[in-house]
Write a structure and sequence with these properties.
about 325 residues; alpha/beta; Isopropylmalate Dehydrogenase; 2 domains; six-stranded mixed sheet; 12 helices; about 15% strand; globular
């Protein structure tokens, strides 16, 4: 077991030889979101295209002591207009990815989800937290804790497949996927155990591909070999999960934030299933977490350009 952070530095280092990607940054009117885009540009992860009122960009840049003269600016008078402009840039392939600024997530995703002008792909859109947990032996993915509130079984199948695709891009050849619940046995009293059993059978039948899927598993059995042994759970996933699939957004959001605030974990995040990867930044994110999110985004874009199967799984572009 390791006791310090290294996952994010590794992700960022993996991008050092990649060409920076053009990213539409929607409404980075506050200093935090603008700084995140500029720092990612400084690290040669992205080439930011800034969609927001030009006057506000220049004011924020001046306050930060940063020069944005080399950045393309798409003047947009409101958060809604900036979201629409940023999505349009991606739809026209002027930009290869999308990044949230200081507007509400709902405002951005409303534009992304539009049938005629948005970025919807063939598969359900979902979010994955990429976690650097100091006392866990490897990178940990948690999904979905930000987009799908109470996903159906069919939506969970897409959520699982999206996460497996991302794991492939991150170098995990056969990710171990734990479908979480409160218990390890299937019971009609807890609906998530029924979904877990069905997802495992879907994996057996090839409806979910590319990973080893098992569940239901309680959190302790998913991440602790000792806990799994005590409960006599025989599983290729138990105690060594790469991906944790949560029952719903509430439980997933609480799990990710508990790890972040009580276990000194750091969380990057990416939205999958759209035509382009999407980074949803938060003002509470550390600078390193924001850079890690951009690194994951860059790796997805470059994998797609190479035509790798894992990327097609992760992105499912229409």
């Amino acid at each position: 077991m390791r006791s310090n952070h290294h996952v994010f530095q590794h992700l960022i280092a993996q991008c050092k030889d990649l060409e920076p990607i053009a990213v539409a940054v929607a409404f980075p009117v506050d200093e935090e979101s603008l700084l995140a885009a500029l720092e990612a540009a400084q690290q040669r992860l992205i080439v930011p295209v800034l969609a927001e009122p030009r006057s506000q960009i220049l004011a924020s840049a001046k306050s930060l002591g940063r020069d944005v003269s080399g950045c393309r600016i798409v003047d947009a008078g409101s958060a809604e207009a900036a979201a629409a402009q940023a999505v349009a840039l991606c739809r026209k392939a002027d930009c290869a990815a999308l990044m949230k600024g200081s507007l509400h997530t709902d405002t951005l995703m409303h534009e992304v989800m539009k049938a005629d002008t948005g970025l919807r792909g063939a598969r359900r859109i979902s979010h994955v937290f990429v976690m650097d947990v100091p006392n866990y032996s490897k990178l940990l993915l948690i999904t979905d804790a930000a987009i799908n509130i109470y996903p159906s079984l069919e939506e969970k199948a897409d959520i699982v497949q999206n996460a497996i695709g991302l794991a492939h891009v991150l170098g995990i050849e056969e990710p171990k996927v734990a479908i979480l619940s409160a218990v390890e046995t299937v019971t009609t009293k807890i609906a998530s155990t029924i979904d877990a059993a069905a997802l495992c059978k879907m994996a057996d039948r090839g409806q979910i591909q590319g990973g080893v899927v098992d569940g239901p598993l309680a959190f302790d059995n998913a991440v602790s070999i000792r806990a799994a042994r005590i409960k006599h759970i025989v599983s290729p996933v138990a105690g060594q999960a790469d991906v944790l699939v949560v029952p719903d957004l509430e439980s997933g959001n609480m799990l990710a934030k508990q790890l972040e605030y009580l276990a000194d974990a750091e969380a990057a995040g990416i939205v999958l299933g759209a035509r382009v990867p999407i980074v949803l930044t938060s003002r509470a994110d550390s600078a390193k977490a924001r850079l890690a999110s951009c690194a994951v985004m860059a790796m997805l874009v470059h994998a797609r350009r190479k035509g790798e199967p894992a990327d097609r799984v992760a992105e499912s572009a229409a």
